[in-house]
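Supplementary Methods, section 5.1.

A reviewer requested that the exact input to the structure prediction be made available. We therefore reproduce it here, unchanged from the version used in the analyses.
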Amino acid sequence: MTHRPRKRFGQHFLHDRRVLARIVEAIAPAAGDRLVEIGPGEGALTRALLERTARLVAIEIDRDLAAHLAREFLPARLELHCADALEFDFAALPAGVRLVGNLPYNISTPLLFRVAALGARLRDCHFLLQREVVERMVAAPSTPAYGRLSVMLQARFAMRRLFTVPAAAFRPAPKVESALVRLRPLGTPEPPPAFADLVRRAFAARRKTLANALGLAPAELAALGFDPKLRPENLSAADYLRIAARRAG
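The structure derived from this sequence is encoded token-by-token as follows.
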């Protein structure tokens, strides 16, 4: 199938067979795995995965592409949902799901925030993303790429950038390189309810001191062991979890 890419869906179809093979090897699917592919597109990765596993769930927003996939694969092998991944109820899926996908650049960050909320329900995730996004995901505190996305994901997952993918591997070729990243849940307790809002407020004022960005009194800073001169970008995900836990207590 040759589908005309739709800009509004951020479509860039992976076609390089060597890259596809490397992705499948990184995922290492087995027959009993509960695999869910986000944005199967023309089905290149879908076909490669179904060579290694018995069944796959796929979420595709483009009706034309979904119709083509429905014609190619029997429902017993491909459970297809024609839906927006930003609105799909991932919580309805069974625990232990493995998420995979070449994520559209235009929704990657909000989709990753949704994935962060799933936490321990997942076994792992393997996503092909814009390299800059992956660099933000795995960034260390006090580095330029470190931010809200870094903290929200690092609080829930151990992450590793596996390899980069050149623009020429896609149709149409994007203007940037991509990278494959692996996320594995840390198995830690759910963050306190105030955690997400705390991180959001902190990085809305990342250049301010902690006292000004989060309203932390000197006594609170001392109790937490933080230097009053620290800024939000200097704290680790574990630090933010400690602040949220203290406020929840």
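The domain at 195-248 is CATH 1.10.8.100 (Helicase, Ruva Protein; domain 3). These observations are discussed further in the main text.
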